[in-house]
Design brief:
The complex is a heteroheptamer.
Chain A lengths: L6 H15 L4 H29 L2 E4 L10 E4 L1 H24 L2 H4 L3 H17 L3 H20 L4 H32 L4 H9 L5 H18 L7 H5 L5 H25 L6 H23 L4 H21 L5 H32 L10 H4 L1 H14 L6 H15 L3 H27 L5 H4 L8 H19 L1 H16 L1 H9 L4
Chain D lengths: L1 H26 L3 H27 L2 H32 L16 E2 L4 E2 L3 H4 L4
Antiparallel strand pairs in D: 1-2
Helix pairs in contact in D: 1-2, 2-3
Chain E lengths: L5 H24 L7 H19 L1 H8 L3 H14 L3 H4 L9 E6 L3 E6 H27 L1
Antiparallel strand pairs in E: 1-2
Helix pairs in contact in E: 1-2, 2-3, 2-6, 4-6
Classes of the chains: A mainly alpha, B mainly alpha, C mainly alpha, D mainly alpha, E mainly alpha, F mainly alpha, G mainly alpha.
The structure holds sodium ion (2 copies).
The site of one sodium ion (NA) has 6 residues of chain A, from helix 11 and helix 14.
Chain lengths: 500, 115, 157, 126, 140, 91, 769
């Protein structure tokens, strides 16, 4: 079933194209949103199944042999990421049906959504470094457009930083590709890796690796490149926030995972030190940023950063402990679901109360106990409380850190976990426990039918719970995918086959 | 020629950086244009530069007669130029709208969303 | 049917007959078609005028190239020598040309000739404003413009 | 060989004209005069260089392209000049003080963007 | 609101078809000579932009007949669809399919999905650039 | 083609390019810069012609073709800007 | 056992639903059936366990991480399980009456049952991580239970404080447990306990121990983490009785006792636990003696008890462990009862402070009787079980292998003050008659549901005191487990006259004296209180939290300051530093060649104009001038492409350049001119940055062009474009065929940009479309 590998790109591209063509009909757009993302979900399950069976699924686009044409390669990590993108995409689409206003729908919301997913999936699946750049751009421009959809002042101000810093990242990325191409003369990542393996002194490659590191670091919102994220993530439509929060930075993380396991030497002392510092400082600055916030989505935004730190910690410690990489991957899986859900919950709270400011919120536990429970499940999961998904994610990373004797990182990760708990309980206390501040706020009627929102949130919360209670299969998946990453020769062989 | 281009491209990166560090949003956009040109030229240079041999096959032939300039790099740059244009267009309109809502060209006044 | 259309159809047929589809052959087709039209249909006024255009065009081109050459020399001299000899002015020249095309062709040709530059046409299309570089003798300039206008109208009407 | 020599001549002439255009652009005292230098010398220069090219190759395909280039340049250069000159005049770029006369002065209406003809021509039928 | 000069207007009227023709020329020969969907599309977009400057946005929209946004949709659809047919024959996505047709005047012609794809590119480029330029011009 | 002719052509064009650029920098008004830009476009076409000739590669003429046809659009754009009475920061 | 734990969660989940359909006065009884059944189940295991058997069962959970749902029932866990289920039964009965009219009672049941299941899981877990999971679950449920009256800000703060401290300790504990598991080669307690030598010889033994202790100490409110416990009294009284005296706070003690065989028996253990325990004991009893809040006093006395238990486990002798188990049981009985009594006083009179009470014996005779009984036990007076526990304790501290004097003095002081507070509890509210204002609320009769717990527990205290053989079996089994080998507890009310008894009598006298001067004692110690308020652990905690918020606000202001300039500066600066560092570390593999050969003069000119136009764009102070400079840049770049054989690129560049100019012109139309916004030094700094960034790229390009490891793969495209791609323009064949996917993405980018721009221009905030 190798066809399944291109479908996660082509389905959203096609849905997006049709959605543009059917611009004038809201019904067509809404139907396409559900059908398109639903099909995407099916395709990504198919893909994961195929990859689980065969280890790698590879397709040479246009039947041009690798390394000349563009190949799509799905290893377990890629397939997992695609599945997560599909889940988030589907959830967001359903959620959007009842939260996105007609105004926004009429200005391209759904086409943008589809094309964003296409870009994200393209980035996950491509085996070609320049093609990765292209998909990054697709994703980026789609996110630009989604970010400003609505034209509020805050959106514009946030977008200026988002756009500028991400464009700088793209330029650095492109420059790095240019330098790498100059050195190796090829773009296929497997081919690059295979060729570099035969070079004696790859000193210059280590230098170029720094540029890739910075470019992806910006995309991943790692320290000290994260500025664009807190400036903008709380400004768009909440469904968009959720999608961004879940997916976008993780594409940067994915790219870091990919190139630093396949192409560049992660054991290089500078690279290792850099990743370690980056991981620690990302965790810490992110969580401290959140501690200073008193707006629902801003708190969540800063936490994205700190959680990215855990994932990078997984990568940074990979040479010392294979378990670390497993932890990083587990963390990604957990985080995408939980963070997206928390944003969706903030949106539902907004629907109920009309504000994201903690000081204007309150009384929701009394009024909506089930919402409270759904929030608690996600929030405690984010904070790494057992038996939810976040606990195992944190546990693996920390256990790996201990195995690797990375004491400072472990200590940081622990403190950050505690501070995450601090933020989550802050939200809980202010939004749910505290009495509603004024009557008029508390009685603001919910707009429209919220059942779809509850269903989406409940489904994602259930997923968090299941990843926690049934952590073994997810762990096994993460472990096998880490094994694949740690043995690049398998990837190279899958792509280049007998040409080696 | 690559050596010469290395310096020229360095100048482009430098000017792009300087422009992006200004407070005026218009200068920011100009910086982005410079940056994208710099990256394209970098790719062009590192792929190796060759005079007078465009990657075209003469009519009736199966291959060019002699060596030709790297067509792959050119295809990549073409893609990058077009992408850069799309992105730039977006950025340009964005600053325009940002100016509309903020009523100032000064980026330092657009910091309401950060803290 | 328009004479030009006929000429093109003939050229295409030529290309079809010879089966050799390229630009050169099409040009040959056009020339042959032109000759045939001039020969076969010379008694019909519509075609006669069409056929008569070519010599006019050739003649006009020659005239214009000469103008171009001489005036270029003058500007070149002025640019190259350290002192400026120009006597610039903006003058209004009344127009005989009426249609958009006539006015435009005239203005463009004027602009292409060194020493004069068509600035704008008044909104009532009565005058053309020119920037002239060497207004040594205003009447002389006006006369040469008028001559050019006449030739243009000859060619176009 | 002969054609090559002629081609060379055309090329030198063309590039020389273009050089003149550059020099004129730099040396002339006001916008309108600079435009004289560039539009024509530029267009002419391209024309000559292109003829040189056509002579050098002596191929129908190349000649056709050369003709098209010359045609396009002849078509667009005066329009560009006109557009800039008009705009420049309209916004009032300073003109050389040695100008003999200016019959256009004051005839643009900034509000309606209309251009009046001089009074002596207004009622005259052409 | 036609305040543009007569000269520009007249030349523009003549240049529009010329540029559009030129753009098609660039599109069609792109597979063999410099040109192609991007370049052709950009020239076409430039042509309509010129028309816009000269004759105003309404006139430019009239020239297009359909909104440029639809052009984007159709172009993207074309692009994606041209990647698919090969899979029906069991090949990978994007595998080119070529077939020769004999036209009465033009003779043997090699057509293939890449050309179809290039057409999609052309449409998207025209549609996108014009969406941008037209809306921006209407704004100012 | 004699090398001196080619050399001279390039030299003349280079000088012209430099002068045009100087005017572009000096201005002083926006229309001056636009004129300089137009000339730079023309010079580019000239360069392309000579280059096509010296390398025996007529393919480069295609670039000249596009340039000849579209470069003036920029001038039209600038003119539109000026005539709309937009904010000007030249002198 | 898995079943018993999971069924707890299951019943908890059902509780709110069931509760809705039953009148509240019966619901408590109904739910109490569940722990009662469990109690009997565990009681049945007692004979086998005390005979030395150990029940093990195991289910895989996350096998790859050695996380299993494995359970072990030995004496220690059994004693705890009995306490949890036994006291839980009475608490549930009590709750039904105490909060009978509360709208959220269903949720309270759910949480209580949830807590009970977690607590059972904790004490039954054999797997370290499984234990930790349940440990954290008790923290979470505790948080939610403390915050039951969540609309009160103080309650929320108290809940957070308790949670934050225990969860923080939990993180340390997790690390410690992971270390323990890794060091011992297994995450199963049943296997680890026999790895004593290996563990204690491990290089990381001390950090491991410290981390585990932090976890245990925070949970069990040891000094200096003790302060959250009295604040947790914001919880409803049944919760305080259950979690914050009888069960959850004992989790830390449980863990210490559990690990004693593996980690104990060394100086570090003795000193750390013994001293911490002793200090906590003294601090607890001292603070208890000077508070007048009923629940506060009980809470502080719980702190005292927890300290005592820690100290005893630290001493670690057989006798000390027996004493610990006896004390644990005695405390659970009397403290559970006392809390319920405090609840009765509150329920019936509304009084929450001793000073509000007095002479209640007439109105609440049964309660008063139960109070006297339990107070006796608290005081450690015969014939209550508390007496036995205290005597054993006093004996064992004197037999400590080290620090015996310190422990003895501490124990004596603690016993003295213990008498005082017992007298306050047992006499003050009931028999002391004073001139008092009206009771806070009208009197309500407690009824049997509220009295069942106190009375039964008080009677048990008496019964075990009179017949110490009754609990002996269970206590021996527990002490054996804590000791790691079989220990037989021989408890008797009368041991003859020994030092311990003498100490007890002295303490009784001194304590009574103090009780008579309770008011003066309180004012005497005010100075200490004032000091604690300024610099005590709670104050430090508050200051720490404040500092956290302030620091994070500061950090955010500094890092996320809103200035794009600074963001860019940081980003690019980091990039340069990293590249430079990498360059300097890899010098051996890097060559740089300066090669200007073959560059024609006009190429220099074009390159110079290219560079100069970018500089012109920077230097001009007109926007349109900058745009014109960009145009010049575009043409020279296009020329470069032409000169180096890229006609398609040149064409594209020219077209894009033209369209860019058009775009800029259309947009700039509305924008104001350039202003010089930055100061001269800033501009210089930026220029320096810019030069460094540019220089970095120059160096990189020079190095790459000089180094080149492999030729490009592009020869393939040159060879196959015509034969397989059917096109002679190789670049175009690559674009539409070889790399069609790139192009597809690229047109997607263009489409997206157009859609985005369309939306941006047409969809205005609030306005029309
Ligand atoms: Na996130
Ligand atoms: Na003239």
């Amino acid at each position: 079933m190798t066809l399944a590998i291109a479908l996660p790109i082509l389905i959203p591209l096609f849905s997006g194209a049709l959605s543009v063509t059917g611009w004038r009909s809201r019904r067509v757009q809404r139907a396409l949103a559900v059908i398109g993302t639903g099909l995407l979900l099916l395709a990504s399950i198919l893909l994961l199944h195929a990859v689980w069976q065969d280890g790698f699924v590879v397709m040479e686009m246009g039947s041009w042999p690798a390394p000349f044409g563009i190949v799509l390669v799905a290893d377990l990590l890629a397939a997992i990421m695609v599945l997560l993108a599909a889940i988030t995409g589907f959830a967001t689409a359903i959620y959007s049906l009842s939260t996105i206003s007609e105004r926004h729908e009429r200005f391209g919301y759904y086409p943008l959504l589809h094309l964003l997913l296409a870009g994200v999936n393209g980035a996950f699946l491509t085996g070609d470094i320049f093609n990765l750049y292209v998909w990054f751009e697709v994703m980026l421009v789609a996110s630009f457009a989604l970010l400003i959809l609505g034209g509020e002042r805050a959106q514009m101000e946030g977008a200026i930083k988002y756009v500028t810093l991400n464009l700088v990242s793209s330029a650095i990325f492109l420059s790095a590709i240019g330098l790498l191409y100059g050195l190796v003369g090829t773009l296929n990542m497997a081919d690059i890796a295979a060729k570099l393996a035969t070079v004696d002194d790859t000193g210059l490659v280590n230098v170029v690796a720094m540029l890739f590191f910075v470019a992806f670091g910006i995309k991943a919102a790692a320290f000290p490149f994260f500025f664009w994220l807190p400036a903008s993530y709380h400004t768009p439509q909440v469904a968009v926030s959720a999608l961004f929060a879940g997916l976008l930075t993780k594409v940067g993380v994915y790219a870091l995972f990919r190139v630093f396991t396949l192409i560049f030497n992660i054991s290089d002392s500078l690279t290792h030190a850099m990743l370690v510092w980056m991981a620690g400082l990302t965790m810490l600055t992110g969580v401290l940023g959140a501690a200073a916030q008193f707006e629902f989505r801003r708190i969540l935004s800063f936490h994205i950063i700190s959680q990215i730190g855990y994932m990078i910690m997984g990568l940074a410690l990979a040479p010392l402990s294979p378990l670390a990489l497993t932890g990083g991957i587990f963390y990604i899986v957990h985080h995408i679901i939980v963070k997206a859900n928390l944003f969706l919950i903030s949106g539902l709270v907004y629907c109920l109360r009309g504000s994201y400011e903690l000081k204007h919120l309150g009384g929701l536990y009394r009024d909506k106990p089930w919402l409270g429970i759904l929030f608690l499940v996600s929030a405690f999961s984010l904070a790494g409380m057992p038996p939810l998904s976040g606990f195992f994610a944190k546990f693996i990373v920390i256990r790996a850190g201990i195995e690797a004797n990375a004491w400072w990182l472990v200590a940081t990760a622990l403190v950050v976990g505690l501070l995450t708990l601090y933020s989550m309980t802050k939200i809980w206390a202010e939004v749910f426990w505290k009495a509603a501040p004024t009557e008029d706020n508390a009685t603001r009627p919910a707009s429209g039918d919220l059942r779809a929102l509850y269903a989406t949130i409940a489904a994602l919360a259930l997923m968090t719970l299941c990843i926690g209670l049934g952590a073994q299969p997810v762990f096994e998946l993460a472990q096998r995918s880490a094994e694949q990453l740690l043995d690049p020769s398998r990837y190279i062989e899958a792509v280049l086959g007998e040409r080696l | 020629m690559e050596t010469l281009m290395a310096f020229v491209i360095g100048v482009l990166y430098a000017t792009a950086t300087y422009m992006m560090l200004r407070r005026s949003i218009v200068k920011l956009v100009i910086g982005l244009v410079l940056l994208s040109n710099a990256a394209n030229l970098l790719l062009f240079t590192t792929a190796g530069m060759m005079r007078g041999a465009p990657p075209l096959v003469p009519e009736g032939a199966l291959q060019p007669e002699g060596p030709v300039a790297d067509p792959l790099a050119q295809a990549l740059i073409l893609t990058a130029i077009v992408i850069g244009f799309g992105v730039l267009a977006f950025a340009v309109v964005l600053i325009r709208r940002a100016y509309d809502v903020v009523r100032a060209d000064d980026i330092n006044r657009m910091k309401g969303t950060d803290t | 049917m328009n004479a030009l259309t006929w000429n093109i159809i003939l050229a295409l047929i030529w290309v079809g007959i010879t089966g050799d589809f390229n630009l050169a052959n099409l040009l040959i087709g056009l020339l042959l078609g032109y000759a045939i039209l001039g020969f076969a249909l010379r008694d019909q006024p519509q075609f006669a005028r069409y056929v008569g255009k070519l010599p006019k065009l050739v003649w006009f081109t020659g005239f214009f190239l000469r103008e171009l050459f001489t005036s270029n020399l003058r500007v070149a001299y002025d640019v190259l020598t350290p002192t400026h000899h120009m006597r610039p002015a903006v003058i209004a020249v009344p127009l005989i040309a009426q249609t958009d095309v006539e006015i435009t062709v005239l203005a463009n040709l004027i602009s292409l000739t060194p020493g004069t530059l068509g600035l704008d046409v008044s909104s009532d299309r009565k005058v053309l404003y020119l920037h002239v570089m060497y207004l040594d003798d205003e009447q002389d300039v006006r006369d040469s413009i008028r001559r050019l206008e006449q030739r243009v109208l000859d060619l176009l009407r | 060989m002969i054609t090559d020599l002629i081609a060379g001549l055309f090329m030198i002439a063309g590039t020389f004209l273009m050089f003149l255009a550059g020099l004129g652009l730099l040396r002339m005292p006001d916008l309108l005069m600079r435009m004289h230098a560039t539009t024509k010398a530029g267009a002419m220069g391209i024309g000559l260089v292109m003829i040189g090219v056509a002579l050098h190759f002596l191929e129908a395909g190349v000649t056709a392209r050369v003709l098209i280039i010359v045609l396009f340049v002849m078509l667009t250069a005066p329009v560009a000049a006109h557009t800039i000159g008009r705009a420049g005049y309209f916004v009032g770029v300073p003109l050389w003080e040695g100008m003999l006369k200016d019959e256009l002065k004051g005839r643009y209406d900034a509000e309606t963007h209309t251009l009046a003809s001089p009074p002596e021509h207004q009622n005259k039928e052409p | 609101m036609n305040q543009q000069s007569l000269i520009l207007r007249t030349t523009g009227r003549f240049l529009l078809p010329l540029l559009l023709l030129f753009s098609l020329f660039l599109l069609l020969r792109g597979h063999n000579e410099p040109g192609g969907g991007f370049i052709g599309g950009l020239v076409a977009a430039a042509a309509v932009s010129l028309h816009l400057f000269v004759m105003g946005t309404n006139a430019a929209r009239r020239v297009l007949r359909l909104t440029p946004r639809d052009l984007i949709g159709w172009g993207l659809t074309t692009g994606v669809l041209s990647a698919v047919p090969s899979t029906l024959l069991g090949e990978a996505f994007f595998t080119a399919l070529w077939f020769e047709i004999t036209l009465p005047l033009l003779g043997e012609l090699k057509l293939g999905t890449p050309l179809f794809f290039d057409l999609g590119v052309y449409m998207v480029v025209v549609g996108s650039v014009l969406t941008i330029v037209l809306n921006l011009a209407e704004e100012s | 083609m004699p090398a001196t002719v080619i050399w001279a052509s390039y030299a003349l064009l280079s000088l012209a390019l430099i002068m045009a650029f100087i005017r572009l920098v000096l201005g002083p008004t926006l229309p001056d810069r636009v004129v300089a830009l137009e000339l730079m476009a023309s010079l580019t076409v000239g360069f392309i012609g000579i280059y096509a000739l010296t390398t025996d590669q007529p393919a480069f003429l295609d670039v000249g073709m596009v340039l000849a046809l579209t470069a003036f659009l920029a001038a039209v754009g600038f003119a539109r800007y000026l005539e709309r009475g937009a904010h000007r920061d030249d002198h | 056992m898995l079943l018993t734990v999971l069924s707890g969660f299951f019943v908890a989940a059902l509780a709110p639903l069931v509760h809705r359909h039953i009148p509240p006065r019966h619901s408590g009884l109904l739910f109490a059936l569940f722990p009662a059944c469990l109690f009997f189940y565990f009681a049945q295991q007692l004979p086998a366990i005390s005979a030395g058997a150990m029940l093990l069962e195991s289910q895989p959970w996350v096998a790859g991480l050695d996380i299993r749902l494995s359970f072990m029932l030995d004496g220690l866990s059994l004693l705890f399980a009995l306490l949890i289920t036994g006291i839980g039964t009475f608490i549930l009965i009590y709750t039904g009456r105490y909060l009978g009219d509360h709208p959220a009672l269903g949720r309270l049941y759910a949480l209580l049952l949830c807590f009970m299941a977690s607590m059972l899981g904790l004490v039954l877990s054999d797997n370290l991580i499984g234990l930790f999971v349940f440990w954290e679950l008790t923290s979470i449920t505790s948080y939610l239970l403390i915050g039951f009256n969540h609309e009160d800000a103080k309650t929320r703060a108290a809940a957070l404080q308790g949670f934050f401290i225990t969860a923080g300790g939990g993180l340390a504990l997790m690390t410690g447990l992971i270390l323990l598991g890794l060091a011992g080669g297994s995450f199963e307690l049943s296997q680890l306990l026999s790895e004593r030598e290996a563990l204690q010889a491990h290089p990381l033994f001390l950090p491991m121990l410290l981390l585990i202790l932090v976890g245990a100490f925070t949970k069990s409110a040891q000094y200096p983490f003790h302060f959250w416990l009295p604040n947790a009294m914001a919880a409803p009284t049944p919760v305080s009785a259950y979690l914050h005296s009888a069960t959850m706070v004992k989790a830390g003690v449980y863990l210490l006792a559990r690990l004693q065989p593996a980690l104990g028996g060394n100086d570090a253990w003795l000193w750390l636990l013994g001293l911490t325990g002793a200090i906590t004991m003294l601090m607890g009893v001292y603070l208890a003696s000077r508070t007048t809040g009923i629940k506060q006093m009980l809470a502080y006395s719980t702190v005292m008890a927890l300290g005592t238990l820690t100290m005893l486990i630290g001493i670690g002798t057989e006798q000390a462990l027996i004493a610990a188990m006896a004390f644990l049981l005695a405390h659970a009985l009397y403290k559970g009862a006392l809390f319920m009594i405090a609840g009765v006083i509150d329920f019936s009179t509304g009084a929450k402070d001793f000073l509000q009470t007095g002479g209640l014996a007439r109105q609440l005779p049964i309660t008063a009787a139960a109070a006297v009984g339990t107070a006796l036990s608290l005081a450690g007076l015969a014939p209550m079980f508390g007496f036995i526990a205290k005597e054993t304790m006093l004996e064992s501290v004197m037999g400590a292998p080290a620090l015996a004097v310190v422990f003895s003095v501490a124990a004596f002081l603690s016993a003295t003050l213990g008498i005082t507070i017992a007298l306050v509890v047992g006499i003050w509210p009931w028999f002391i008659r004073r001139d008092m204002p009206e009771l806070p609320t009208a009197f309500r009769s407690p009824g049997p549901a509220l009295l069942a717990g106190p009375v039964v527990l008080a009677l048990l205290g008496l019964g075990f005191g009179l017949l110490p053989a009754l609990p002996e079996q269970a206590l021996s089994a527990a002490a054996s487990a804590a000791a790691g080998h079989a220990v037989v507890a021989e408890l008797a009310l009368w041991h003859g006259v020994n030092t311990a008894l003498v100490m007890s009598i002295a303490a009784l006298l001194l304590g009574t004296l103090l009780f008579c001067n309770w008011g003066r004692w309180r004012s005497m110690t005010d100075a200490g209180e004032r000091f604690a308020r300024r610099l005590g652990p709670e104050r430090l905690y508050a200051m720490g939290m404040e500092a956290l918020v302030r620091f994070s606000a500061w950090q955010t202001r500094v890092l996320q300051n809103g200035y794009l300039r600074y963001y860019l500066m940081t980003t690019l600066g980091t990039m340069v530093v990293l590249v430079m560092a990498a360059l300097s570390m890899n010098l051996s593999g890097i060559r740089i060649a300066m090669d200007f050969s073959g560059v024609a003069f006009y190429e220099y000119v074009i390159a110079a104009v290219l560079a100069a136009s970018s500089i012109a764009a920077v230097l001009t102070n007109e926007r349109l001038g900058a745009v014109a400079a960009l145009g010049a840049l575009g043409f020279t770049v296009a020329l470069t492409y032409v000169m180096f054989s890229a006609p398609d690129l040149a064409i594209t560049q020219v077209l894009v350049e033209t369209l860019t100019v058009i775009l800029l012109v259309l947009v700039l139309f509305r924008l104001p001119g350039f202003l010089k916004l930055s100061s001269r030094p800033l501009r210089l700094l930026d220029a320096l940055t810019a030069v460094i960034v540019g220089g970095t790229f120059t160096v990189l390009i020079l190095a790459v062009t000089a180094t080149r490891y492999f030729p490009s793969i592009s020869q393939y495209f040159v060879e196959h474009a015509v034969s397989d791609g059917f096109g002679r323009n190789i670049v175009n064949v690559i674009l539409v065929d070889f790399r069609g996917l790139d192009t597809l993405g690229e047109i997607a980018v263009l489409s997206l940009a157009a859609i985005g721009i369309f939306a941006m221009l047409k969809l205005r905030s609030g306005g029309q479309e």
